[in-house]
Amino acid sequence: MSRPVSYSGGLPSVSSVASRLSDQIAASPSILETLSPTYNTFGKEVIHSKLENPADLVNVVERASNQHSLLSVFTPSSHLIQQIPTLYSLVDARSPTVFHTSLESNHGDYSNVMAVRHTGVAIFASSGTYEVVQSSVLAHITALRASIPVLNVFPSSSEETSSALSSSYIDRAFSTLNLKQYIAQYHSGTAAVLNVPAHESIPEFVKPSPTSKVDFHHVAHIAIDTAELLHIKLFEYTGSSDATDVVVVLGTVSQDAEAAVHKLVTSRRKVGVLRVRLYRPWSDHHFLSALPTTVERIAVLDVAHDLSTSFGPLFLDVATSFNAGHWSGSLPIIREAKLETSSIVSADTIHSIFDLLHESHENKGAISIAQKHHHTNGYTNGHSHHAHVDESSTEVAYVKLLSQTFKDRLVLSNVLGHDTVWGKLGVNGSHTSDHSTEYGFGLLLTYIQRRNRLEELVSQLLSHTNRLSHALASALQEWNTHKTDAEKSEKYANEIIDALSSSDVRASHPSLAKLWEEKELLSKPALWLVGGEKLSYDVGNSGVHQVISSKENINILVLDMQPYSEKIEEKGYDFRKKDIGLYAMTYGGVYTASIALNSSYAQALRALKEAEAFPGPSVVLGYAPHAKIEHIGSRSAQPVSLPLAQLKETKMAVDSGYWPLYRWNPALDVEGKEPFQLDSDRIKKELKEFLTRENHYAILLNSKPDISTTITDSAEIKLARAIRQKAQHSYDIMLGNLNTTPILILYGSDGSNGSALSKRIAAEAKQRGLRPRCMPMDDFEVEDLHKEQFVVFVVSTAGQGEFPTNSKQFWKTLQGASAGSLEVGSTKYAVFGLGDSHYWPLPEDAIYFAKAGRDLDEKLAAVGFHRFASYGIGDDQDPDGYMTGFNAFAPHIWKALGVDNVEVTVEASAPPDDYIKEASNYLRGTIKEGLEDTTTGRISELDTKLTKFHGTYMQDDRDIREDRARQGLEPAYSFMIRARLPGGVITPDQWLALDKIADTWANGTIKITTRQTIQFHGIIKKNMKKTMQAINHALMGKVFGYSSWLIKTDVLFKYIDTIAACGDVNRNVMLNPNPEITEVHQQIYEFGKAFSEHLLPKTNAYHEIWLDKKLVTTTEHEPIYGKTYLPRKFKMAIAVPPSNDVDIFANDLGYIAIVENKKVVGFNVTVGGGMGMTHGNKKTYPRLADVLGYVPFDKAIDVGEKVVLVQRDYGDRTNRKHARLKYTIEDRGIEWFKDEVEKRLGYKIAPAKPYHFTRNGDNYGWSRDHTGKWHYTLFITNGRVKDTPEKQIKEGLRQIALVLKGQFRFTPNQHLILSNIESSQKAQIERLLAKYELSNDGLSGLRLNSMACVALPTCALAMAESERYLPSLITKIEDLLEEHGLREEEISIRMTGCPNGCARPQIAEIAFVGKAPGTYNMYLGGGFTGERLNKIYKESVGEEDILRELAPIIRRYARERHRGEHFGDFVVRVGIVKATKKGPDYHD
User: Fold this and answer.
1) Alpha helices in 508-600 (DSSP H)
2) Poorest-confidence range of 416-420, 426-430, 1283-1287, 1306-1310?
3) Which one of 242, 393, 479, 493 counts the least CB within 10 Å of its CB?
4) What is the pLDDT of residue 700?
5) Residue 1399 near residue 1390 (C-beta atoms within 8 A)
6) Residues catalogued as catalytic
């Protein structure tokens, strides 16, 4: 039950106006109780309607509209978001309803008001006695004259005013504006919108619907005319007429702001404040006219803490006004003033803003203001003055996690003197270093003492229970028993408070009155100190020791902010730091943990909960690196966002053992259990020594046998290097006994070209009688080059002329050398560089072509080495690719070595894929043997060609690849496993099993893919079979301890597997998960499953390798695929018009359902779609599928099989970049292809039937099917299901799955549908969606139509970020859209890390395809229905370029688009890009 909302003194002022100017008032019962029966100005008794909950408003509005009653609604600001649909309908209906809205927050937060600013309602804002009356009258009259709903907003603390004042003001308005006429016309249903002269510069509103006929320009004119006739200033300026500094605030801000300005002006400060009283419609002209032309600096104060936009709405309006071209003075600096959450706008606030605005005017960032924080449980944390923190800060995430975990129980003390999460600055920049740990500790001790006194008070009351009611006595007794239990103490605290709610009860005994005063202490508090890394400089005297030795139940969170990349640099480690964790564990009796949010959210959450539950002190060490990032948005190798840089720093720190994750719980030791739990794979030398000393290391070895080989200490790198050198020395001795010339081939290669070419050189050298050795450059020491006779370097180019990862350390060392600093001996070298001359197309970018090889060649010569062959270049654009250049380079090598006349026959370094498949014994290869090899985390390269058929790819974490190479370690290999789920339908029990698999063996997340299934990441080799088996058995409702409702017998699931989820076969079948004709879903779902099973490989290899099934037969065959399977991957989808959510034309094979009388009678078959291409290679391109014709339902699978057979027999098996079905059809023609299919069928395919698509996105929110069951489509950002401090998506879905009696359905756009929900369970699901903030409310149209592939750090093909970057880029683009009223406009935007097209970017309206770290090709003009390809607009752009290019296009779209015209259609129509429907035209 929601609590009554207090309108405080503002209610009488507003209600007196509403009663005079309304026929009906709707409000909550608590508000209506304060209103007396009254008659309005037109002589009728005002009707009062109760609103028990926000949903009641719909009926009240409908009734008032039918009766032509003037309606006033009293609603708290927290209900506005729920009323958005009603607001839209009222705007469309031209209803003059007035909403009187009090800001519930005592701090004036108007986030909820801003959330409805684009609905089309007019918004007035006021504060103070007279203003509230003025605005209330203005709201009613504007609503009446413009026939539009109005929102009248005022603070809850507004003062009372007399009804006489209201009546007097209303009477003047009646006489001035002839209101009786308008009222009579509305009552009779003949009201017409007033025609008034137009004012200039009124920006257009977002229309509430595409068909809306409201002229919002005209509405703006009426509002302005009404205000002027009533002598109300729209923008009220107070201050110096020649002010240089001005603060802009909304009208709800206290009038103390004017008082503060008056005081400053009298002291000759040139300042002013401008209060915005008419916020919607906004008038550029009136706003600018109110400002003094002398203004130089403007601070816009937005009190809207809960909005997700980067900039406040008021700030955006102000900034946009100056761009309108009406400002006559010099353009001022405009900055946003950010007020700390829960702070109050006061005179001190205004003073602070002016001081900061004037003192730091060179800095154009946000101004940060903060004030005293009051804890929610009544405890005043008086020392927590702090400045604003960027939400991307990792430290803030830790504090958010504390807040979310412990909620109202949290009592937080911030140690400002030790570089804590808020730095050293307090209010207004004042220094507050005197607030030490001891100070914060003392405050928390005071809290403990207060609670101890409360316990004594309860004990005294329990000694005289005869004077207490039974309910109170029982609650006190239970509380006394469970006062240290967080959950139970809160439960009984609520019972005590309920029993004491009566003042008569409290007056019956002085102790009860005292207990009531201290009631906030009843719930067990979570007491936390938060400090920074300087606490570790002197553990004994920093206050940490006092906390530990106190034995009090106080927790301390110490955040280490030094980036790992600084630590590993020379002199980067701060030796002043002491390990507080070891100190606490050694001291004894202290819960200790080391956590890193960006590494494991689940482990961090568990540690914090365990620490708080521990009956004594606890120390939790949190890693919060202050990553430094430069050149964001430029074309560089820098990470594209600060959170991403912090993530990479954390991953390197944890992987290296610098920051191990562990938990030490002394309470377990008392119970005879092992107190130490290692939650990461590596530990520091010092931690190992402690565990050994305490006899815990042996136990750790038993639980984690691999740990013995991964202990990290300062000698690890040297040890690894020594091992390599010893092996090299032995090899050299062996070779010395052979009478042949040695040659060393060193390569740098992120892909396969460099390494493959190096192996080819080595193979040819061996045939020519030489002694070759081949290795990555980083595996060889620069200092040892002088020992070699001949060295050939093969170097690929990464990004903008950078060295590949496995050669960076070598290059870094060589760069530091100078002539004479290295021994060169008689060593001779040759360099062959690889690159793509078209990769960077701009003339100024030509320097990046093969730059790494060129730089290496020049540097080796500068140091003193001598060439034995000139620098060679391999260009991907040459007729034979890089082999053209190599064939010209290689003869010079062999001639210099005297072996040019030797006859050789060199095969490719690795056999073609078809050879591998044919020799694999039906996809077995040596996979089983490779899994049993424990000496490495990888499998052989040839086996990686086969495992994809089993649904898995080998990957490594590219975030830490370079750092592991520096340490002499192999890459952090892991595997991605993808499930085969035709149609993407699973049960809640299966979801729970998959959820558990993610936590047990994967990286704790579930990825919903762009092909309507799920995949796991981060599975190490030794866990592969366990994971595969668990996925196969995911049907079992009790897997991993889960047990919920029994699966119904009519649910047609056998098991989930991973067969053919990847590989050169038909992959996961996609289909529309929730068609508009819901009866169709079961039909196409059954068809999709049957097709998937029909095209499934028949080999038993999968079951033998992963499920330990025995070989059933010695003779196998693949009736459809044959031994070599298909030339390349094959993708199939089923669409149900009007939805094209499967992107039917992007697939090799597609079925467009033809529905008659709610039954699928057949399909239009499409063939030859595909998105993949290669940068710079115009022979590769995306292609939309052709429509082959119509086939009846019972022939559809047969036709599909024949399509596959034609591709099997005619697809290109010599060039995998040209092997997809799209090239087979493009090369030979669609008619030829159709003939081939028909020959195999034995009959003709009929002409296609009509169909029509309207969109390719998802329909979000609730829908109901023909059976009465409900479905809720839930937006999942890029399909990644995980928990973060900001949002617990995974936990929320877990809780839903535990109760849901329906299905989980995945969409082809990476989202999730909670399906087949009974009406009786809908409310329960809604509550869970609300509890975990999983609803789609507040998301922009752009974000709802976004999609990104995984890309970095796991995809080997990724050239740039995608999934981890697109959300932050969208936030910035949303700001551009919001400036022009386009936030809700549906625009499809997609991003991939490479041009292979996994997220199908080539058909998006806006697309970005990765080219290098931080650099993308930008495409525009795809079709909103997925029926047109986009076109490249700009090549090689970074974030700054993207925003700069999009800004004018978005502005133009807002002004010039036709009604209902989509963004992609617009950019094509106006000529920004050409329309593209044919693949070969894509690069024109």
Assistant:
1) 510-517, 544-550, 564-567, 580-587
2) 426-430
3) 242
4) 59
5) yes
6) 978, 1067, 1129, 1131, 1349, 1355, 1394, 1398
